[in-house]
Design goal:
With 427 residues, the protein is of the alpha/beta class. It has helices at residues 2-15, 18-21, 38-53, 105-112, 158-170, 228-239, 247-257, 277-280, 306-317, 321-353, 356-364, 372-385, 400-407, 412-426; strands spanning 24-30, 61-64, 135-141, 144-145, 148-150, 155-157, 176-182, 200-204, 213-218, 223-227, 264-267, 301-302. The chain has 2 domains: 16-302, Rossmann fold (3-Layer(aba) Sandwich), CATH 3.40.50.1460; 318-426, Orthogonal Bundle (Topoisomerase I, Chain A, domain 4). The strands form 3 sheets. A 6-stranded mixed β-sheet has the order 2-1-3-7-8-11, with helices on both faces. Strand 1, helix 3 and strand 2 form a beta-alpha-beta unit. Helix 3 (38-53) runs parallel beside helix 6. Residues 1-19 have low confidence and may be disordered.
Length: 427
């Protein structure tokens, strides 16, 4: 009799939809801080609401975000974060597992790979405790550069991310995994690196050589509320029946609506034929809780230009001469800083090549990253001796020049010497 019951239970289990029979894990990461980066944490909070509203239990969602936005002195609605000009609060109810100084690449990789012992005593200590039967969905929103995504005080390399993913596959820590990545040049994290046979599917906000875009500037908050690729996929998830929509269909919608950059897909494209519900949750709401149907212009701007555009908006909206003068002073400082970064990179390339024609070519072209050892070493050296990259995010948009130097066959020793000479002279 017991044997018969066991068989019947097994048959019932097999008959369940995949979204009910498989455990779903979600990892949400905002890799920035500061008010002008409001949008990244707003993205992550919105994604949390999508997962919860579509039936994923909170104990299977791990969230990493600096958490300096909701109660920021610049916030006209304390304790509230929105991801759309007419949107509802997406911050309420979000359980943040790791915040502040705990939002690091090292902790992210430990959480992703289920290293509970490595996270003991840090934040909530929770990790993605997935098995070979489970589905894992990872969404990351922040800045990026060739082969790099940024965190508040460090960067994560494509090499280290790929090692972690391959390790998870070897240890059978997932049945299938999907990653959505919002960052400039985010395609470079996977292009030529992600195998097609390890059951991982990825979409990115941009290809390997272009910026991603912010959108929804808000006059009250004086910042951008979301990122173009991110709000496109989340507003789609808000309104669709995720059991009926495939990942491929969502990709095509987001690709069409993200009209400022090239949304890309990588890895095992067969996974894209599966329902979005298998990764974002399968409960369908007839009345979406967060979708806002109003047609508000997104007016996208390059991620690297967000601080500049915020100041320009503020200048237009300034209500007094004194406020205008203060903003003009901020603009001058920002422009001076950007020019100093531009000058430093140009000087480094000029010194390293000792050839004006070659230097001009390397400053204006974008080569594919292959020599990762040289490149990552050069980036670290530049961050130490010139401009600290997590502090001066604009520098991320210039790191392609170090790719070019390394791919041109210029050694790290030569690049390091050029960095030292250029930045000591400049400073």
């Amino acid at each position: 009799m017991m044997h018969l019951i066991s068989i019947n239970c097994f048959i019932v289990l097999l008959s369940l939809p995949l979204s009910m029979a498989t455990k779903h894990w979600v990892l949400l990461v905002a890799g920035s801080n500061n008010w002008y980066n409001y949008r990244h944490q707003a993205d992550i909070c919105h994604a949390y609401q999508i997962a919860i509203n579509h039936g994923i239990p909170p104990e299977q969602i791990v969230t990493m975000m600096y958490d300096d936005i909701a109660k920021n002195s610049n916030n006209p609605t304390p304790g509230v974060i929105i991801n759309h000009p007419d949107g509802k609060d997406v911050y309420g109810g979000v359980k943040i597992d790791y915040k502040g100084k705990d939002v690091t690449p090292k902790n992210f990789l430990k959480v992703l790979t289920g290293d509970a012992s490595g996270m003991k005593g840090i934040g909530s200590g929770r990790v993605i405790d997935s098995t070979s039967d489970d589905h894992v969905f990872v969404y990351f929103s922040d800045h990026g550069a060739p082969g790099i995504v940024a965190f508040p005080s460090e960067t994560l390399s494509a090499v280290d991310l790929m090692k972690a993913i391959k390790s998870m596959y070897a240890k059978k820590q997932y049945q299938q995994m999907v990653l959505y990545i919002e960052a400039c040049e985010s395609g470079s994290m996977f292009e030529g690196l992600l195998p097609t046979n390890i059951s991982v599917y990825v979409t990115t906000a941009a290809n390997s050589a272009e910026s991603s875009y912010a959108c929804y500037y808000d006059k009250d908050r004086k910042t951008y509320l979301g990122d173009l690729y991110s709000v496109c996929w989340m507003e789609d998830s808000d309104k669709e029946n995720l059991q009926a929509e495939t990942l491929q269909k969502q990709f095509e919608i987001v690709k069409k609506e993200t009209n400022a950059s090239h949304v890309m897909e990588y890895g095992d494209l067969k996974i894209a034929q599966e329902p979005v519900a298998d990764f974002q949750g399968g409960v369908h709401y007839k009345q979406p809780l967060y979708y806002v149907p109003s047609q508000v212009p997104k007016n996208p701007v390059k991620s690297e230009d967000v601080p500049l555009e915020i100041l320009r908006h503020r200048l237009v909206d300034a209500e007094s001469d004194e406020e205008q003068l203060s903003i003009i002073d901020e603009l001058k400082q920002l422009i001076t800083m950007r020019q100093a970064i531009n000058d430093s990179v140009k000087s480094i390339v000029t010194i390293a090549t000792a050839n004006e024609q070659q230097a001009n070519r390397l400053l204006s072209s974008r080569l594919k990253l292959r020599d990762t050892d040289c490149y990552y070493a050069a980036v670290q050296e530049y961050s130490r001796k010139c401009f600290d990259i997590p502090t001066y995010e604009y520098a991320l948009s210039k790191l392609y020049t170090f790719v070019n130097l390394c791919e041109e066959g210029i050694s790290f020793a030569e690049i390091s010497d050029a960095i030292h000479r250029a930045c000591v002279k400049m400073l």
